[in-house]
Every structure is written in C-alpha cells, then in structure tokens.
Write a structure and sequence with these properties.
The protein is mostly helical. It is built from 13 helices and no strands.
C-alpha cells in the first residue's frame, strides 16, 4: 500500500507490526535491516532517509517498553529476551552435530557426555572435559543475562578456533531447518512413520514449487523481495545457532505463497493456447 500511495501512516503501521512480530519471535529482529534497505530503495530520492528512519523508529519504539522492563529486572541491556548466547553455544562446541538435538545440550549434561563418548577420542575427550569443567566454574548461575553472555562468548571462542567446523555445522543446520520432520526428544508417538511421511509429502512439493515461485516472483514483481527477505532473515538467524523443523514453521506461509504463485503461473501458461481461441472480452 505504501508503494502505491506513499502515505507516512502506512510506514508507521508497517513498523508497528514489525515490532509486534519481533516481540512474538525475537529472531524477526534480523528482518529490520532488510525492511529499512527495501524502503530506502523504493522511496523517492528526497524521502529515502526519512522513510527508512520512520519504519525503523516505529519498530524500535514498539519494542522499547519491553526493553526498559528488561533493564529494570535484569540490570542490563536485553532488547527482547535472553537465549542467543545459549543457543549459539549449543550449536558451536566440541560435540555439536548440527541436528535438532543440539538444542538440548548443556555444559557437561548427559547428552554432552554421551556425544563426547561417541565423537571424541580419549585424548580429545579428556581435554574437552577439562576445558568444560573450567568454563562451568566461571558461569554465573544466578544472573541469567550474564550466563547467556558467557555461553555466547564461549561459542564465539570455539567458532574462531574452528571456522571450518562452524561452516560444516551451518550446512547441517540448513538441512535440519528445511527437513520435513526433525527428531523429537519427547512424545515419540508423534514421530511415527505415518506422520513423517505426511510431513514429507506435504512439505517437499511446496518447497520445490516455492523455489520456482521465488525465481519467477523476483523477475516479475519487485515487491516480492520483501517476502524473500523474510525467508532470508529467518535463515540467517538459525544458521549460526541451532535448528529444527519447528523453528521454520512461522515462515512456511511465505513458502506457500511462492508455491501458489508458481502453480498459478504454470496454469496460466498451459491455459494460454485455449484462451487465445476465445472471443475477445470487453
């Protein structure tokens, strides 16, 4: 609507809903730069800066009351919620595998020890246990914000020491995020063969059509790049951390939009010869 009419209130409305989306799902914060860049690109030259600042300012103002609340409760800067550092460490450590179970890891917990037995040699395991025990002693068990930042710093240290492994894990997380059905730790009845097959037959055709639709939409409609940006920002959020099918579900609607566009485009192309023989319409 803003692209057609150029009203300021439309940007304000967009910023408000972006802020509400981020409050519901903090990873949506990564969409903000995409939205600001898109508004800059599509605005008239004299309004580029003002339009971009408007949508960003309203988004931040929507989040600000919760950020102030966090500062009062945790005595630190937490825009929406903690958890980034914890999930970043879970996805980047000596026993991370890039699968859905990574999100259940904790320093020296049962899953960590089980994987250390399988993935590491005796020497590597002894070294990893010693490093983890030393790290656990430094963890702040009381302050949630401090603990989250310490875990994030440890994950960053490991990533810098193992850049190749980080890239390999990111590739596995991509596969995990876009699998039709990831492993479940609890409620194993949900992971029966019927459900996994239903998920596969329901998702993979949509994904294949969606990829075609993304290409067609990018070529035909510049406005569709906003939908591309939602998918890209979601992917950018989870590739460095942990992933499972559930984390992708909020954006499946966008894949359905692109898949529907591809299906309609194919139908129009197939029906075109018949339409050419019809009498002209007023």
């Amino acid at each position: 609507s803003w692209q057609k009419q150029g009203r300021v209130y439309q940007l304000i409305g967009a910023g408000l809903f972006m802020g509400l989306a981020a409050l519901c799902r903090p990873v949506f914060l990564l969409f903000f730069p995409f939205a600001a860049a898109y508004v800059w690109w599509r605005a008239s030259p004299e309004l580029k800066l003002r339009s971009s600042l408007t949508v960003c300012a309203v988004s931040i103002a929507t989040i600000l009351p919760w950020t102030i609340r966090n500062a009062m409760v945790f005595h630190g800067f937490v825009p929406i919620s903690t958890g980034f550092g914890m999930h970043f460490w879970r996805g980047n450590n000596d026993v991370a595998m890039g699968d859905a179970d990574d999100r259940h890891l904790a320093p020296l917990n049962a899953l960590w020890e089980q994987r250390a037995e399988i993935l590491l040699t005796d020497a590597q395991r002894e070294q990893a246990i010693a490093q983890m025990e030393a790290f656990v002693k430094t963890l702040d068990e009381v302050n949630e914000v401090s603990r989250d930042r310490q875990l994030g710093a440890e994950g960053l240290r490991w990533t810098r020491a193992h850049p190749g492994k980080f890239l390999a894990l990111a590739g596995r997380r991509f596969r995990t995020l876009y699998s039709a059905f990831s492993k479940l730790k609890g409620n194993l009845d949900m992971a029966n063969e019927r459900n996994t097959l239903t998920a596969a037959f329901g998702f993979y055709p949509v994904l294949a059509l969606g990829i075609v639709g993304m290409i067609l939409a990018a070529c035909r409609y510049k406005a569709s790049l906003l939908l591309h940006a939602v998918i890209a920002s979601n992917l950018a959020a989870y590739l460095p951390m942990t992933a499972c099918t559930r984390f992708r579900l909020p954006i499946d609607g966008y894949w359905i939009v692109f898949a529907a566009f591809a299906a309609v485009a194919a139908w129009d192309r197939l029906a075109r010869p018949d339409r050419e023989n019809l009498p002209a319409q007023p």
